[in-house]
């Protein structure tokens, strides 16, 4: 489902540049319910010890379901026009790997404006595993990258990550609530300096900084 975008302060209308735009409110509840179901499915499949005959049957059933849904496919680059709690409307992508509401692989990370930056809670299950019982370091980097990019975007300066530095301070456990925070710490020409942390039980388990380079939007 694609609609006309509301203008976002300081940004041109993305439809003028060939992007399709979807308002968050236009995503049907039924799709969100299906996405949640598939998240459960991914975790279930990753951990199943069902016998081969049962697996064959389930595989065939899922092949039918996949074919049934494959007919009407959204543009991969479709933008999501959404409004983080406590802040103005902004753009992301509908299928963003970390935060996209329609992406079953996204946990998803939902961030709200807080304390001069952004804050959100997320719980990562066994499909995000690296070492036994612990979150994969690449996924922690992805969470941080998202929070860092979103902080710049929420401050009205969307851009791309030019440089990302991650420090892993403590092992980050699976299946527990993690708090993610981020903020802009400075700007210089098109560069936006940002920092972010992931905490478990109040203790920082991973932290990152990034240089985001603001989008150079053609006149
Ligand atoms: C039309 C409307 C569209 C609306 C869309 C709106 C929003 C959508 C955008 C964002 C969505 C918001 C939130 C999403 C949240 C998170 C998503 C995660 C973020 C990512 O997943 S993102 C993917 C990975 N990311 C890349 O795929 C970047 C590949 N890369 C490049 O595309 C270029 O490399 C680029 C653009 C970075 C720079 O290129 P460029 O030509 O534009 O600019 P240039 O090189 O002149 O650099 C300008 C100044 O940045 C300094 N600088 C450059 N590189 C640096 C580095 N590595 N370290 C330190 N400083 C650096 C220079 O030193 C200079 O600094 P100075 O001003 O001091 O000279």
TrEMBL record:
Keywords: Apoptosis, Cell membrane, Cell projection, Cytoplasm, Fatty acid metabolism, Hydrolase, Lipid metabolism, Membrane, Transit peptide. One of its GO terms (cellular component) is membrane. Its EC number is 3.1.2.2. It is found in: Cell projection, Ruffle membrane; Cytoplasm; Membrane. Residues 133-205 form the Thioesterase domain. It is a peripheral membrane protein. Its main location: membrane. GO terms for molecular function: hydrolase activity. GO terms for biological process: fatty acid metabolic process. InterPro entries: HotDog_dom_sf, THEM4/THEM5_acyl-CoA_thioest, Thioestr_dom. It catalyses: octanoyl-CoA + H2O = octanoate + CoA + H(+); (5Z,8Z,11Z,14Z)-eicosatetraenoyl-CoA + H2O = (5Z,8Z,11Z,14Z)-eicosatetraenoate + CoA + H(+); dodecanoyl-CoA + H2O = dodecanoate + CoA + H(+); (9Z)-octadecenoyl-CoA + H2O = (9Z)-octadecenoate + CoA + H(+). PANTHER family: ACYL-COENZYME A THIOESTERASE THEM4. Belongs to the THEM4/THEM5 thioesterase family. This is Acyl-coenzyme A thioesterase THEM4.
């Amino acid at each position: 489902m694609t609609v006309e975008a509301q203008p976002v302060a300081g940004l041109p209308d993305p439809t003028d540049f060939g992007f399709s735009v979807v308002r968050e409110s236009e995503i049907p509840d039924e799709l969100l319910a299906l996405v949640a179901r598939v998240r459960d499915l991914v975790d279930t499949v990753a951990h199943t010890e069902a016998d081969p005959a049962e697996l064959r049957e389930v595989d065939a059933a899922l092949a039918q379901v996949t074919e049934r849904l494959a007919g009407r496919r959204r543009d991969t680059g479709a933008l999501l026009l959404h409004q983080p709690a406590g802040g103005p409307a902004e753009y992301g992508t509908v299928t963003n790997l970390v935060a996209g509401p329609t992406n079953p692989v996204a946990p998803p990370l939902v961030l709200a404006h807080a304390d001069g930056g952004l804050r959100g809670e997320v719980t990562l299950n066994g499909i995000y595993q690296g070492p036994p019982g612990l979150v994969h370091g690449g996924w922690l980097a992805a969470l941080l990258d998202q929070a860092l990019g979103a902080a710049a975007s929420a401050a009205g300066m969307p851009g791309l990550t030019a440089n990302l530095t991650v420090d892993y301070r403590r092992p980050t456990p699976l299946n527990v609530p993690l708090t993610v925070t981020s903020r802009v710490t400075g700007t210089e020409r098109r560069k936006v300096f940002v920092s972010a942390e992931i905490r478990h039980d109040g203790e920082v388990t991973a932290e990152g900084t990034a240089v985001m380079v603001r989008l150079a939007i053609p006149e």
